[in-house]
Design brief:
- The chain is mainly α.
- The protein folds into two domains: 33 residues, no CATH class; 28 residues, no CATH class.
- It has four helices and no strands.
- The protein is elongated.
- The protein starts with a helix and ends in a 20-residue tail after the last helix.
Length: 65
């Protein structure tokens, strides 16, 4: 929950367009949940199941280590 709180944002459409064009970092709304979709513990903690919008099949999840 703290992770999402850190990345929560409120931004107008025009400002978001400018950010996407000029800032090398992804917008906060995506930084809040996209990385977590690759963490198995995320699925356990929030009971995310196949068919849910945030679900990524285990074989498709990014593994770095």
């Amino acid at each position: 929950m703290s992770w999402a709180t850190v990345w929560r944002t409120k931004i107008r459409d025009e400002a978001l367009r400018t950010q996407v064009k000029t800032d090398p970092h992804s917008p906060g709304q995506y930084r809040a949940y996209v990385p977590l979709q690759n963490v198995d513990a995320f699925y356990e903690a929030f009971n995310v199941k196949e068919g849910d919008k945030l679900y990524i099949a285990p074989e498709e999840r990014v593994k770095i280590w």
